[in-house]
Structures are given as structure tokens and as C-alpha cells.
Amino acid sequence: MEISNNLNRLDLYQAQLKKSEALKPGAQQTQANAQAGGKGDTVTLSPEAMLRTSIHTAAQNAPDVRQEKVNAIKQDVANGTYKVDSRKIAAKMLKENAEVFGAR
Hints:
By secondary structure, the chain is mainly alpha-helical. The protein has five helices and no strands.
């Protein structure tokens, strides 16, 4: 599965998050640096941005194939118990066709 979206900004956020996590044990040192050098830059992310990041990470970590589902279907085919519901297939085909051509 591939998600094509402009998610490079989320990758940058992930890299920055990892850097900030690495600095947590030395938070006192960071505070001392901030006091000595003035104000530092800060970034605040909206809840939507945080959600997008977690969704992106989950999508990247998801397997391409749901092997347990594939195995169950193979077993049903081998047993002769796999049934195709032609009405469901036709309904989904009509729905996808309507979405492609803008009909409702």
C-alpha cells in the first residue's frame, strides 16, 4: 500500500521529535543554554498535525499483505467453501463507477 501525499513535513517533524526526545535527560542543560543565549525557537503543533503524524507512522508500519486473511481465503478455496456474493461485487462496482464519473 502506498499513500501519495505531501508528507515530507511530517518526516521532518518525526526527525525533530527524535532529537527533542534525545535531549530530555539533559533538559537542565538546555534551560541553561536558553538563559545564556536568549530565546530559542519553538514550534507548537496542532492536534490535527499530531494526528496526521501518528496516522502516517501507522501506515508506514502496516504490513502490505494481511497474511491471516489471505490464509483464511486460501483455506476456504481449498475446502470448496469460498463463496462469492455477486450482489456485493456488483454494488461495489457501481459505487466505484459513480465515484469516478461523479454520479451519485
